[in-house]
Design a protein that fits this description.
The chain has a single domain (2-154), classed as Nuclear Transport Factor 2, Chain: A (Roll), CATH 3.10.450.100. It is 51% helix and 37% strand. The protein has three helices and five strands; from the N terminus they run H-E-H-H-E-E-E-E. The chain has helices spanning 2-50, 57-66, 70-90; strands at residues 52-53, 93-106, 110-123, 126-143, 146-154. It starts with a helix and ends with a strand.
Length: 156
């Protein structure tokens, strides 16, 4: 009888431990997911902002605007006409790549992402291109399951 009681207690402890470990694993998985998604949103927005072509500049601007929300969207939209006019006038193109990116903090609803980007900017006067390097700091926000840049700046 005592052995049955000990076995019952051990079985209950094992079950409780399994539940706790399962909950921790699920929580770690959720954290990894939001971290990956927030980082991906920052990386893609940086690419969108630095990859432009005078022949497709209106679509390029729409792509940037679709990855932003709130103040970032308002800030970018308020300068879009100037960007479009300058890129079109100079017949500029820019091809970018992400050099590195990382999270500096966050949770399942918001995060801060830093992205380093290099780009080669060309136009008829500089057909071989000029390199450009930028480091963006983005606040990204989970809006209805989609991570969007809600604030952006350039790191010094």
């Amino acid at each position: 009888m005592a052995l049955a009681g000990v076995l019952a207690v051990l079985a209950a402890a094992l079950l409780a431990g399994t539940i706790v470990l399962g909950m921790k694993a699920a929580s770690a998985s959720r954290e990894a997911t939001w971290r990956d998604e927030a980082l991906a949103a920052g990386r893609q927005t940086a690419l969108n902002m630095m990859t432009l072509d005078y022949r497709t500049v209106n679509d390029d601007m729409k792509r940037v605007l679709s990855s932003t929300t709130g103040a970032a969207k308002d800030q970018y939209a308020s300068n879009a006409d100037t960007f479009v006019a300058e890129i079109t006038k100079t017949q500029a193109t820019s091809q970018a790549q992400v050099l590195s990116a990382g999270l500096t903090g966050g949770d399942g609803d918001s995060a801060e992402v830093i992205v380093a980007v290099s780009a080669v900017v060309t136009n008829p006067q500089v057909p071989q291109g000029t390199p450009r390097y930028m480091r963006f700091v983005f606040d990204v926000t989970n809006v209805d399951g989609k991570w969007l840049v809600s604030k952006f700046g350039v790191a010094q």
